[in-house]
Design brief:
InterPro entries: Deoxyribonucleoside_kinase (IPR050566), DNK_dom (IPR031314), P-loop_NTPase (IPR027417). One of its GO terms (biological process) is mitochondrial electron transport, NADH to ubiquinone. The protein is built from 11 helices and 5 strands; from the N terminus they run H-E-H-E-H-H-H-E-H-H-E-H-H-H-E-H. It has 315 residues and is of the alpha/beta class. It has a 5-stranded parallel sheet, sandwiched between helices. Helix 6 packs across helix 10. The longest helix is centred in the middle third of the chain and has 26 residues. The relative contact order is 0.15.
Length: 315
């Protein structure tokens, strides 16, 4: 074969290779995640005992013979149940955790910060404390949203949600047991924005809040799934009246406009920000009976079983 034939031969081979590449079926591997309810789990599969992280330290030497990742399974997930005030999050989250054999973490409150190790309630000192030292808790905010210490209250709630979220991650990664928590630190800004829009917080407070938010959340593992319980503000107001809590019923805060603001920031800012890499499940859920719950759990289990999500979040 002469040297002059080489260019034509190379041109032919390039065309042939291009034809093979374009005609070869493309196979896309989509990562998937699933969780299994107790009734569908194999009773013969025995999990390793959870690491007692609350009483025993996990040191560098333990990593050589007892990896905590050996306790992970398909239910090692962090699920957050979100929703507006009065959406039924507590009841639903408890039953969800029970159905999938996960641990339930309730929404944190500021009560532990007001009680000293000796059992004394610091709020008893409010009558003699200077205005800037008075305690502003949730009840105080609901009675007087323009209290000068409302900003301090919101920052304290953010830190409590951050501590609880870190506790859930510690439980998840040490024991392998899945976690269902009611609200999380990632959704705290929803209430902050609603308070800012209503005029309860200043622009300087908002700037400081987002500085702290950016620094504290950057390194945290995000939830695997967020379930948002959707209900209209009118329905929420009716449920608040039925709870018959005088502070909530007579509060100048819990108005239709305030609940609409919370709904807006949940749907337009919070949930859209979690469309990637996590998963969202929005349900217009109204708990009425155990049968309704069971039907919902089966629907949720079937729909999430093949949901895709970013495996990098497990690292």
């Amino acid at each position: 074969m002469s040297i002059t034939c080489i260019p034509r031969l190379l041109k032919f081979e390039v065309k042939r290779c291009g034809f093979i590449l374009t005609s070869t079926p493309k196979i896309a591997i989509i990562p998937s995640a699933s969780i299994t309810s107790k009734e569908w789990r194999d009773p013969n599969v025995k999990k390793k005992a959870p690491w007692p992280y609350e009483t025993k330290k996990y040191t560098y030497f333990h990593a050589f013979y007892d990896l905590t990742t050996s306790r992970f399974d398909e239910n090692t997930k962090l699920i957050v149940v979100d929703g507006n005030i009065g959406a039924g999050k507590s009841t639903f989250a408890k039953e969800l955790a029970e159905a999938f054999d996960m641990r339930y973490f309730p929404e944190p409150t500021l009560e532990p910060t007001y009680i000293t190790p000796y059992g004394y309630d610091l709020r008893k000192l409010d009558p003699i404390a200077p205005p800037s030292f008075k305690i502003c808790d949730l009840d105080t905010f609901l009675r007087n949203p323009h209290d000068p210490n409302v900003a301090k209250f919101q920052f304290s709630m953010y830190m409590r949600r951050l501590e609880t979220y870190i506790d859930t991650l510690a439980h998840l990664l040490n024991t392998g047991q899945g976690v269902v928590m009611e609200r999380s630190v990632y959704g705290d800004f929803v209430f902050f924005e609603a308070m800012f829009k209503a005029g309860y917080l200043s622009q300087r407070v908002k700037d400081l809040y987002y500085d702290i938010n950016q620094v504290t959340l950057e390194e945290l593992m995000r939830p695997h799934l967020i379930i948002y319980l959707d209900a209209s503000p009118d329905v929420l107001l009716e449920r608040i009246k039925k709870r018959n809590n005088p502070i909530e019923v007579n509060s100048p805060v819990l108005t239709k406009e305030y609940l609409e603001s919370i709904e807006y920031f949940y749907k337009q800012k919070y949930l859209k920000g979690f469309s990637v890499p996590g998963e969202r499940y929005i349900e217009g859920f109204n708990p009425k009976s155990g049968e309704t719950h069971n039907v919902w759990f089966k629907t949720f289990h079937k729909s999430y079983r093949h949901a895709s999500y970013d495996r990098d979040q497990q690292a």
